[in-house]
UniProtKB/TrEMBL annotation:
Name of the protein described by the UniProt record: histidine kinase
Source organism (scientific name): Acinetobacter lanii
Keyword Transcription regulation: no
Protein EC: 2.7.13.3
Classification via InterPro entries: 2C_sensor_his_kinase, HAMP_dom, HATPase_C_sf, HATPase_dom, His_kinase_dom, HisK_dim/P_dom, HisK_dim/P_sf, Sig_transdc_His_kin-like_C
Catalytic activity: ATP + protein L-histidine = ADP + protein N-phospho-L-histidine
Main location, first listed in the record: membrane
Length: 562
């Protein structure tokens, strides 16, 4: 398939687009999840950080604070440091979180360690610095102890103060009676024996897996501190998956739209041009953009329009010229018939019959010229290219012209007899015949014919004469149908103005060119036609190979028969 195929480009573009959208979706999920994970870590630690901050702030002396922090470190089995604030560099966002009594979490993904920075209430000079390398049941069961420590200062008002600090917790924190909880007997027994219980629940809904921490309240039989349910972090929640999917589909739709729109626009241009052509306007052309099928379609449409327009113009010109050219011989024939009917002298009647016969012959010649021109103008004729000897064609035209006894000197600058060129013999003969006939009509005394092959591999035939030549501003027009430089002289010489236009069309279908200039040797007009000399070299080799193969097979068959 061509590398310029528009369908291949669309398929390749779709594949590339899908890959790019997949990469974009993956990166987008990673970026969103990084932010979500950070917010999730901070939301889980905000509440406990607030309670720890309150616990440290309630200690009266620095030593009491250090002792409280040491006990908290042992309870959590995590290192907790009491640092001076000037030793910890915080960003503007982190400082705002500290001011709101929220935790700052710094997560090291390579080591899998989180660092928790907690401000101390009414103490701007110190921070609590906690290194968290893992979170297990021990740490989770220790969290309720810090909440007890906070509520112990409000006996009988635990629920009210718990409700006040609820805003610091991402998850629900409440005190319930054990009878209100859906627990089995073993879990109830553990709670009655002052042991904490951790509940894992798998939920098929959007929340997914959740964790709840149940811890019995000290000095309050039957009451349980319930923390949770806390949803586990979901790397691909339904909302995120649906959002990324919709966004990816939207980007894919935009990409497909971008791939299809140029083709649709080009098709619309061709369709609009066809609509205009249908109304009879052949002047519209479609811009050719690129090198794909749509560009080929536009180019084919333009070529078709040019050809149709040329055919219509040629037809109009042909009708005008034919009607003009036919009137004269037809009028002479009618006049001759009238004279023949009125004349009784036998010799004069024979003279009129001879003149009528010449007019009929002129009509036949004109019709032949018109048919040849129309055939060449309407489309590519059936050309049977073959290797021919160029000398034979040129010499044949010289012999035929001398047989007409034109009293003009015809010279042939003969090419080598061994020179072979690819051409259609009948049409090449017609070209040389028309050029020589045109030169004989207008020359004073001499016509020179030559031919050969240039160094660039172009075959050529050249016809020169010593006549008046052709003005430069008329050299393009003489190849138009029925064009005459001197109408009266052309009529006297018997021409119809179709010979050179036929030569021009043959040169076109040969893949060559025809031009006219001034002869450097004779001073008159010089016509030169050029065309590729060996365009069918490959076909010739294939033919030779087939002939050799057939010959060898015939010999093998003969030996086998013998």
């Amino acid at each position: 398939m061509s590398k310029h195929s528009i369908f291949l480009r669309i398929y390749a573009g779709l594949v590339i687009l899908v890959v790019l959208v997949a990469i974009f979706g993956y990166l987008l999920v990673q970026i969103i999840n990084y932010q979500r994970a950070q917010e999730y870590r901070e939301s889980l630690t905000d509440g406990i950080a607030f309670v720890i901050s309150e616990g440290v702030a309630r200690q009266q002396t620095p030593q009491q604070k250090m002792d409280w922090i040491s006990d908290a470190s042992d309870l959590l089995e995590l290192p907790i440091y009491y640092l001076e604030s000037n030793k910890v560099e915080l960003s503007r966002t982190e400082l705002k979180r500290i001011e709101k009594q929220q935790a700052v979490v710094r997560y090291d993904a390579e080591q899998g360690v989180a660092y928790l920075i907690v401000g101390v209430k009414n103490d701007l000079k110190h921070y609590l610095y906690v290194k968290i390398d893992s979170i297990g049941e021990k740490q989770m069961k220790a969290i309720p102890i810090f909440i007890w420590d906070y509520l112990v200062y409000y006996p009988g008002q635990e629920k009210e103060y718990l409700a006040k600090i609820q805003k610091h917790f991402y998850y629900n924190v409440d005190i319930r009676n054990i009878s209100q909880l859906s627990l089995d007997s073993e879990q109830i027994g553990r709670l009655r024996s002052d042991q904490s219980v951790i509940l894992y629940q798998d939920n098929a809904s959007v929340r997914g897996t959740t964790i709840s921490i149940l811890s019995p309240m000290p000095n309050q039989p039957g009451d349980v501190l319930v923390m949770g349910p806390v949803p586990m972090f979901n790397w691909m929640p339904f909302q995120l998956a649906a959002g990324i999917t919709l966004l990816s589909m939207f980007i894919l739709c935009l990409g497909v739209y971008g791939l299809i729109v140029p083709m649709q626009r080009k098709l619309r241009q061709v369709n609009d041009a066809l609509d205009i052509m249908q109304k009879g306007d052949m002047t519209v052309r479609v811009p050719v953009e690129g090198r794909d099928e749509m560009a080929n379609l536009a180019s084919s449409y333009n070529s078709m329009s040019d050809h149709i327009q040329r055919l219509i113009e040629a037809q109009r010109e042909l009708m005008r010229a034919v009607s003009h050219e036919l009137r004269t011989p037809v009028a002479r024939i009618r006049f001759g018939m009238e004279m023949l009917a009125e004349e009784e002298e036998y010799d004069y009647r024979l003279q009129q019959v001879d003149m009528i016969d010449k007019d009929i012959e002129a009509l036949n010649t004109l019709i032949d010229e018109i048919m040849t021109y129309a055939k060449l103008e309407q489309g590519m004729p059936s050309l049977d290219f073959e290797e021919i000897v160029l000398f034979e064609v040129l010499d044949q035209v010289v012999v035929e012209t001398e047989a007409l006894k034109t009293n003009k000197r015809i010279e042939l600058n003969a090419p080598p007899i061994s020179l072979m060129v690819d051409a259609e013999r009948r049409y090449l003969h017609r070209v040389v015949q028309n050029l020589v006939g045109n030169a004989v009509r207008y020359c004073d005394d001499q016509v020179l014919i030559s031919g050969g092959v240039t160094a660039q591999g172009m075959a050529y035939v050249c016809v020169e004469d010593d006549g008046p030549g052709i003005p430069e501003d008329e050299r393009e027009r003489i190849f138009e149908a029925f064009a005459r430089l001197d109408d009266s002289r052309t009529r006297a010489s018997g021409g119809y103005g179709l010979g050179l236009s036929i030569v021009s069309r043959i040169a076109y279908w040969f893949g060559g060119t025809i031009r006219v200039d001034q002869s450097p040797t004779l001073g008159g007009a010089r016509f030169i036609m050029r065309w590729p000399a060996q365009r069918f070299k490959k076909k010739k080799h294939q033919k030779e190979f087939k002939e050799i193969k057939d010959s060898k097979e015939a010999e093998d068959g003969k030996e086998l028969k013998d």
